């Protein structure tokens, strides 16, 4: 039986990664600063640890049965644009500590394979219609935000450990990812969950507020597609970063309208001032496609599942506050 450590197992993608590995008969230890809010019992072993501390990384990596076969580093201080645009110093400080201590101590602990979760935030802004960017186009670097700069540094650090110390380091740059059991309220939620919550809360015939003018272009990847890509990359020999994302690009207004249509409500979109981030995205997926990865879920299929889940959370919250 293979053994995996999932860092950030109390979070959205980490929680789904744990489920995916359990389906493949892994023994899984999860670590996080908080338990998973909806699926706390999925891991074989779960440790509450702050991975900014080197000693906690050593504790996470110490296993009586020998080194972990695989470490999935998905822990990060992160959130949607509202969070990323205001918590810059916390993001840079906390994430660089987590990433520096985790990769260093994974090598010390003789881990065989190490996965690092990077982001397409490492890339520069684009204009609608610009040609696709490949992974190598990240240089010369001009990320739009400090979260992206930290990711770029951390992925280079992880790959340097791969070259110098022999650990099999794998890096994926995720597009926006969405699905059930993601943050949907509180200020760290991303656009698909935030829009789903606003639509679920709105009265039929009312309106929802959307930050910016609604024209920013993004692609959104359903979480099941993402974790499948992560796993495929981890098992591969690809020692360079790979983009993972759905090739379906939509504007924020198109995303909002899709959710409104799914809800069956008659709602209008009101644009208000707010942090938007980059204007456009368009990334090449050839590297991850070369490993046999394709996305399964269309945006509408994935958002149908996501909206239903967020709507249930909203209803439960309303019921519990009565
Ligand atoms: P998330 O916030 O749901 O999960 C991250 C987890 O890390 C949280 O549970 C958090 O408590 C934990 N964490 C934070 N600080 C920690 C610390 N000091 N010690 C231990 N755990 C700590 O976010 P997510 O969406 O699941 O993101 C997972 C990874 O994927 C992150 O590296 C993120 O930057 C990256 N990513 C996510 C997206 C996306 O759209 N969700 C896109 C690009 C990249």
Structural write-up:
The protein has 322 residues and is an alpha/beta fold. The chain folds into 2 domains: 3-177 and 221-244, Rossmann fold, CATH 3.40.50; 179-219 and 248-282 and 296-310, UDP-galactose 4-epimerase, domain 1. Helices cover 39% and strands 18% of the residues. It is built from 10 helices and 12 strands. Helix 2 packs across helix 4 and helix 6 (191-201) packs across helix 8. The chain is globular and about 60 Å long. The mean pLDDT is 97. Residues 8, 10-14, 32-34, 50-52, 74-78, 94, 98, 117, 119, 174, 176-177, 183, 190 line the site of nicotinamide-adenine-dinucleotide (NAD). Nicotinamide-adenine-dinucleotide binds next to helix 1, helix 4, strand 5 and strand 7.
The N- to C-terminal Cα distance equals 48 Å
CATH T-level topology of the largest domain: Rossmann fold
Briefly, what CATH class of the largest domain?
Alpha Beta
Tell me the structural class: alpha/beta
Low-pLDDT stretches? none
How does CATH name the architecture of the largest domain? Answer: 3-Layer(aba) Sandwich
- Overall spatial form: globular
Please identify which CATH superfamily of the largest domain we are dealing with.
NAD(P)-binding Rossmann-like Domain
Count of folded domains: 2
Order of helices and strands: EHEEHEHHEHEEHEEHEEHEHH
Q: What's the pLDDT, averaged over the residues? A: 97
**Which percent band covers the strand fraction?**
15-25%
Name every ligand kind in the structure: nicotinamide-adenine-dinucleotide
Helix content: 25-40%
Number of helices: 10
Oligomer: single chain
Cα Rg = 19 Å
Q: Taking strands numbered 1, 2, ... along the chain, how are they ordered across the largest sheet? A: 3-2-1-4-5-6-10
Largest sheet: 7 strands, parallel
Number of strands: 12
């Amino acid at each position: 039986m293979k053994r995996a450590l999932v860092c950030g197992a109390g979070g959205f993608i980490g929680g789904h990664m744990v489920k995916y590995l359990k389906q493949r008969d892994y023994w899984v230890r999860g670590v996080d600063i908080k338990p998973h809010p909806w699926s706390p019992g999925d891991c074989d072993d779960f440790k509450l640890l702050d991975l900014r501390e080197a000693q906690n990384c050593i504790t996470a990596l110490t296993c009586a049965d020998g080194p972990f076969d695989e470490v999935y580093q998905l822990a990060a201080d992160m959130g949607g644009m509202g969070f990323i645009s205001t918590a810059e110093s916390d993001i840079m400080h906390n994430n660089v500590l987590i990433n520096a201590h985790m990769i260093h101590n994974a090598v010390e602990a003789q881990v065989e394979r190490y996965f690092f979760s990077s982001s397409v935030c490492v890339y520069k802004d684009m204009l609608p219609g610009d040609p696709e960017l490949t992974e190598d186009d990240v240089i010369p670097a001009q990320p739009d935000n400090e979260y992206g700069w930290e990711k770029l540094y951390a992925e280079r650090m992880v790959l340097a450990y791969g070259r110098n110390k022999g650990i099999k380091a794998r890096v994926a740059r995720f597009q926006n990812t969405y699905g059930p059991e993601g943050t949907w309220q509180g200020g760290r939620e991303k656009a698909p969950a935030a829009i789903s919550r606003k639509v679920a809360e709105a009265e039929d015939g009312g309106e929802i507020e959307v930050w910016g003018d609604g024209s920013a272009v993004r692609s959104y990847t359903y979480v099941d597609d993402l974790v499948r890509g992560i796993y495929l990359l981890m098992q591969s020999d690809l020692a360079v970063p790979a983009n993972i994302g759905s090739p379906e690009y939509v504007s924020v207004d198109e995303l909002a309208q899709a959710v409104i249509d799914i809800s069956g409500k008659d709602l209008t979109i009101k644009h208000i001032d707010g942090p938007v981030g980059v204007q456009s995205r368009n990334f090449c997926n050839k590297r991850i496609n070369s490993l046999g990865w394709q996305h399964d879920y269309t945006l509408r299929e994935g958002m149908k599942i996501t909206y239903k889940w967020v709507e249930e959370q909203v209803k439960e919250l309303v019921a519990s506050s009565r």
